[in-house]
Amino acid sequence: MVSFKVAFFLFVGLMVGASKAQLCPTFYDDSCPDVSDIVRGVVQQALETDDRAGARLIRLHFHDCFVNGCDGSVLLVNQTGVVSELGAPGNANITGFNIVDDIKAALEEACPGVVSCADILALASVHSVSLVGGPFWEVQLGRRDRRRANLQGAIDGLPTPFENVQELKEKFGRVGLDSTDLVALSGAHTFGRSRCRFFDRRLNVSSPDNTLDASYATQLRQACASSRDTFLNLDPTTPDDFDNNYYTNLQSNFGLLGSDQVLFSTPGEDTVDIVNMFAGSEQQFFDSFGQSMINMGNISPLTGEQGEIRCNCRRLN
Ligand code: HEM
Ligand SMILES: *[C@@H]1O[C@H](CO)[C@@H](O)[C@H](O)[C@H]1NC(C)=O
Ligand SMILES: *[C@@H]1O[C@H](CO)[C@@H](O)[C@H](O)[C@H]1NC(C)=O
Ligand SMILES: *[C@@H]1O[C@H](CO)[C@@H](O)[C@H](O)[C@H]1NC(C)=O
User: Where does substrate bind (predicted)?
Assistant: First the structure.
């Protein structure tokens, strides 16, 4: 009886262990040992002609992970059996696919059929950050690509720039991320651009947003006057570098998106202290950012024999 119980619990333990997704940093050590250097090389090359290359890539990884986990689903275009996630408002005119294609091509040359598109986004993210002054973290690998997309999941799950802290926390909470993850990952807005349409309701002269610096608002109003599709810097101080200026900007009411500024300007929220901590210590921010990127990268990946390794990141095999 006792030995049956022991055997039973051992068996259950093994089953639980087996069904839990296991990513690891050494996944491609035998099958594609240069994977990280190859990805880094293509990202570096892209940055030479496009200051936003890294920003585009890390945003793709975020939008991938928040919808059914980090499974490469954001990359799929409309095709037989797939209604693309690119039809969701949060993905409207999202970019970076050409760079992903270039990375995929380089990897197919070196080790055909081995590296998933989901892992490409995770690796591209760390290099996008570390190549422009940000931290490096040990990327977990071994994700596989899903054979379907989830448009409704993208519509419901991606946060919008018009949400308050409660709503942002709720959406991060759904995928297992907490307030520290929310504040740290929002720090990715230390580089890249946003179209005016995502913040111009904060520029209304007849109902001024008093969490937006008045002279900055005047500047933005002028810059946005010609078109709501004008792209402006998310971080007006150091637009293309990865640093903690995003947080010092928030402390001076220089957050561009409403969803940025609310992290600091909502009294009583735990996010306020976290913004102050990251503003006060770039090292703290860098350490937390790496950990939160690992947390985000761990959102329900496909592993083992699940899904596939796509040949073309935009299409099912
Ligand atoms: C907290 C909730 C978030 C909201 C509401 C949000 C919203 C936005 C919006 C509206 C834009 C501008 C898009 C455009 O004009 O095309 C943007 C850009 C960007 N987002 Fe976020 N974001 C959030 C979190 C994140 C996270 C977690 C990351 C990455 C870890 C990220 C990385 C970026 C980057 C790098 C850009 C610039 C992209 C480029 O220049 O092409 N964002 N975000
Ligand atoms: C994909 O196809 C659906 C109809 O099946 C359409 O509503 C949607 O706009 C298309 N998405 C894109 C990104 O073209
Ligand atoms: C996407 O781009 C097209 C043309 O480049 C533009 O007409 C459209 O307004 C854009 N959509 C959004 C939501 O920005
Ligand atoms: C600006 O704010 C006023 C007052 O709240 C509002 O009536 C008006 O519709 C707003 N204008 C725009 C363009 O949003």
Answer: 159
